[in-house]
Design brief:
The complex is a heterodimer of chains A (about 575) and B (about 300). Chain A contains 18 helices and 21 strands. With about 575 residues, chain A is of the alpha/beta class. In chain A, the strands form four sheets. Chain A has a seven-stranded mixed sheet with strand order 9-8-10-11-13-12-19, sandwiched between helices. A six-stranded mixed sheet of chain A has the order 2-3-1-4-5-6, sandwiched between helices. Chain B is of the alpha/beta class and about 300 residues long. Chain B has one domain: Thiamin diphosphate (ThDP)-binding fold, Pyr/PP domains (Rossmann fold, 3-Layer(aba) Sandwich). Chain B contains ten helices and ten strands. The longest helix of chain B is centred in the first third of the chain and has 15 residues. Chain B is globular, with a radius of gyration of 20 Å. The chains are: A alpha/beta (about 575), B alpha/beta (about 300). At the A-B interface, α1, β7, α7, α9 and α10 of A face β2, α2, α9 and α10 of B.
Chain lengths: ~575, ~300
């Protein structure tokens, strides 16, 4: 569908892990963003550590981008694996740039524009076999108008640490690739448009952006255990939190990491952990304790394919049930989900604010494709974010940690506060924190802890409604969450251009569910569709349970995100 | 922060009597329980050290012994079964100015929480862990624990046990604890002395207190513990790890329980190492976030 605009180009680079596929993707991404273009990348990589097929896809445009796109316009195949894996997607009109002579002889389908480039051979001739990817990148830059000045700049910046020789070698390989491509006759229509004007942007992956959001929010303490695809959150925080004077510890397991976070929160600090589904499952018991003892903590879950060990490097949105309901004994928590890199920054700050205000666990759901997707976002002004601190005791009168207040929120004290000593306990307790198992007390305390959460909806932006102006009742309304939102946004643009009356609803707060806003949206649609990447239709279940709405479920779980084309097709089927 | 926070608790002493550290929470343990001795020993050490209750955090997991924090005047956390270690780690690293005390049982520490023990010791978290070892699960009314003697009959070993017990002391010596001591809980004088020294110690201090359970363990009685305990000889070199291990082994072979200070060494604590790391990167609350954000410019 991106073919409707020549300003919107998708290049897919494929090859053997370790051949420089990721570097080429990163360079093109950085160069495009540097030149003022928008970027949205998508990667897949094997769960194994060495070898295997690696893929990096860069979508770049002069217009705002919301997702990875349907498929590629240009394939750059470093080897036979990359060619064979993508053979079925070579539609008439697409282009392929491939290594020739290489380890394969492609059988080019009718209508596909083919550009053989001697990548391996040229790099060998230059006595720099590792620069094969630079030769390929040089060819791509000529064929598809990748901003070459920016490319040279980011390349030089990246390799300068390795010395002048390395920079020179790579630049030469790049130029050689350009010469080779210039000698070929361009037959395809694909070209990157001229950027409108350079913007002040940063380019980040979803995982790094969550780390940045946490730093902006005032993160003091971080503990995590390595797990794909969440590890990069910890890596980012490990690098930068010490600069802010904070504490990072790698725990012995996920139970320990959330326990340490609970301890640090009790000690008065803003604390967070990050994990994926298997780790979140292990944390369930301590999430209950944090709710019971009313301790503010932030838990990031970068979802991956399940169940069990599942598909560790693949995309899925299948931890919603666990995030909302996982755990024993009627415990609550706040659950947020992020759509894109911008959300990863902004909603991480919101997660801390809500945790601090409501003194409870906040789970932030991201997902496997967003984890590694790099996108450009406007340079964030850290001073522009509103930050919330927990309400602390004013020192007047006798302190009661679990004082029954109208809002349900009771002031806290940090250790060291004179007169503020108290116990944080997982046992049911009275206002003083002492064990109390009377029915009157338990009901009052459960009501207190859940009463707090009723106001959460007022502390977060209203759910975005994506509706064409003056259309009136939509024939179909789409409800989406997480990175699926970006796919639905684009699908709706295409559908509206074809005259369909469709609208979208994009909740970021998933628990407690903003029920009234769901009802209001439902009232503007004849039918509802809820696409999500999991087998059971988890959000659809929850919406049916919590509201009067009966959305139809559209689920996939093939380890990949939806594409706009899939949504368009489904909507057309329903409205046929 | 509206709190009056003292930067260096360890230098901030108060003058209180042992009873001033005791809350009026109603008694929880059975008559004749060894845990009363542990509590008395702890209160006495706190008074002798002059620990400010406002800067003391008492952390426990689940079990009879894990109720101890309710009886201590301090900040405190009664957490989950087996998780006192990592929770206390979070408290200590977040606020190195606090005194952190863990109290818990043998099942809590070495069965469900066993996976955390090596890391408290090897990371040298600056706190004291008082194990209240009664060789049985008391709160669930008498099941075998990882320190139960093989011959013991319990509700889950009605025909006698089939497993070997573990020795918490040998584990802690191996895991790298920097202060390892043991006493009979009924010997309040020795117990409180070891707790006191353990609290003064900079690093992870492990004190195993053998504590009888009169309700569910009829073989490890107070008298049995008292008879088996034997202080390490005056010439014991507590700075020598092999000597400590040999002393434990020799006592065991003779059917005795070695008590007193078994091992003590000095090593930087984790919070000290982290503070150094932060210093090394010029870290502070005022570090300009823009310098970090700039790194993500294309």
């Amino acid at each position: 569908m991106q073919g409707t605009s020549k300003n919107d180009l998708i290049i897919r680079i494929g090859g053997e892990g370790g051949e420089g596929v990721i570097s080429v993707g990163d360079f093109i991404t950085q160069a495009c963003a540097h030149a003022g273009l928008n970027v949205y990348t998508f990667k897949t990589f094997p769960a194994e550590i060495k070898g295997g097929y690696a893929m990096y896809q860069v979508r770049t445009s002069t217009e705002q981008l919301y997702n990875q796109g349907d498929t590629f316009d240009v394939l750059c195949a470093f080897n036979g694996d990359a060619y064979h894996n993508n053979r079925d997607f070579l539609k008439p009109g697409t282009a392929i740039v491939y290594d020739s002579p290489g380890d394969f002889t492609p059988d080019i389908p009718e209508g596909v524009h083919a550009y053989p480039i001697p990548m391996t051979e040229t790099a060998k001739d230059m006595r720099n076999p590792r620069a094969k990817n630079m030769v390929a990148m040089g060819a791509l830059s000529v064929l598809f108008n990748i901003p070459v000045e920016s490319l040279r700049k980011v390349l030089t910046a990246k390799f300068s640490r390795k010395g002048e020789e390395v920079v020179k070698g790579n630049l030469e390989a790049l130029e050689r690739g350009r010469e080779l491509a210039a000698a070929l006759k361009k037959t395809d229509p694909w070209t990157i448009g001229a950027p409108k004007s350079a913007q002040d942007v940063i380019v980040m992956s979803g995982n790094n952006a969550i780390g940045l959001g946490a730093l902006i929010a005032g993160l003091d303490f971080f503990s995590a255990y390595p797990i794909t695809p969440a590890t990069e959150v910890a890596i980012y925080v490990a690098k930068h939190l010490p600069k802010r004077g904070g504490t990072l510890i790698q725990a012995e397991d996920e139970i320990a990491s959330i326990s340490q976070v609970v301890g640090a929160s009790y000690a008065g600090k803003k604390a967070m952990t990050s994990t994926s589904g298997p780790g979140l499952a292990l944390m369930s018991e301590m999430l209950g304790m944090a709710f019971m003892a009313e301790l503010p903590i932030v838990v990031v879950d970068v979802q991956r394919g399940g169940p069990s060990t599942g598909l560790p490097t693949k995309h899925e949105q299948s931890d919603l049930f666990l995030a909302i309901h996982g755990g024993h004994g009627d415990a609550g928590r706040i659950v947020l989900s992020v759509e894109n890199v911008q959300d990863c920054i902004d909603l991480t700050v919101v997660a801390f604010n809500l945790a601090e205000k409501y003194q409870c666990p906040v789970i932030l759901l991201s997902d496997g494709s967003l984890a590694f997707s790099t996108q450009n976002v406007p340079y964030p002004d850290p001073g522009s974010y509103k930050l919330v601190e927990r309400e602390r005791w004013n020192g007047e009168g006798e302190y009661q940690r679990y004082l029954l207040t109208k809002s349900g929120i009771s002031p806290m004290t940090d250790p060291g506060t004179i007169g503020g000593a108290h116990i944080a306990t997982g046992l049911e307790h009275n206002e003083d924190g002492l064990p109390s198992y009377t029915s009157v007390n338990h009901e009052a305390m459960q009501d207190k802890r859940f009463r707090k959460l009723k106001n959460v909806v007022n502390d977060i932006a209203p759910v975005e409604v994506d509706a064409a102006q003056g259309v009136g009742t939509a024939d179909l309304g789409l409800i989406a969450w997480g990175s699926t939102i970006g796919v639905v946004r684009e699908a709706l643009q295409h559908l509206r251009a074809e005259g369909y009356k469709v609208s979208g609803f994009y909740p970021k707060l998933l628990n407690p569910l903003p029920v009234q806003q769901f009802e209001d949206f439902g009232a503007t649609c004849k039918r509802l569709l809820l696409p999500e990447v999991n087998f059971q239709g988890q959000l659809a279940h929850f919406v049916r349970a919590e509201t009067s709405l009966r959305p139809e479920s559209y689920t996939i779980c093939g380890g990949m995100p939806f594409t706009p084309e899939m949504i368009v097709k489904k909507v057309k089927e329903i409205l046929a | 922060m509206n709190a009056i926070l003292h930067p260096q608790m360890h230098l901030h002493k108060v003058e209180l009597k042992p009873k001033d550290y005791k809350t009026d929470a109603p008694s929880f343990w059975c008559a004749g329980c060894g845990h009363y001795g542990v509590l008395t020993g702890l209160l006495r050490s706190l008074a002798e050290l002059g620990v400010d209750p406002n800067f003391l955090v008492s952390v426990s997991g689940i079990g009879c012994s894990s109720r101890l924090p309710y009886f201590v005047n301090s900040y405190k956390m009664h957490t989950l079964h087996g998780r006192a270690g990592p929770v206390a780690t979070g408290v200590q690293l977040a606020r190195p100015d606090l005194s952190v005390v863990i109290t818990g049982g043998d099942g809590d520490g070495f069965s469900i929480g066993g996976g955390h023990m090596p890391h408290l010791a090897r990371k040298n978290i600056n706190m004291i862990y008082i194990l209240m070892d009664n060789h049985v699960y008391g709160l669930t009314k008498g099941q075998c624990s990882p320190t139960s003697r093989t011959e013991m009959q319990t509700t889950t070993t009605p025909y006698g046990g089939v497993e070997e017990p573990l020795d918490p002391i040998m584990y802690m010596l191996t895991y790298g604890a920097t202060y390892v001591a043991q006493a009979f809980a009924g010997n309040v004088k020795l117990a409180s002395q070891l707790i006191k020294e353990g609290m003064e110690h900079q690093g992870f201090a492990f004190v195993n207190l053998l504590s009888q359970c009169p309700s569910f363990n009829n073989i490890d009685t107070a008298q049995a513990f008292k008879d088996a305990c034997e202080e390490v000889p005056a010439g014991h070199d507590a700075s020598d790890l092999s000597a400590a291990m040999n002393a434990v082994n020799a006592a065991k072979q003779a059917g005795r329980i070695p008590t007193g200070l078994l091992y003590k060494t000095e090593r930087p604590t984790l919070d000290q190492r982290m503070a150094k790391l932060v210093e090394g990167v010029g870290g502070s609350k005022n570090y300009d976030l823009r310098k970090i954000i700039d790194l993500a410019r294309p």
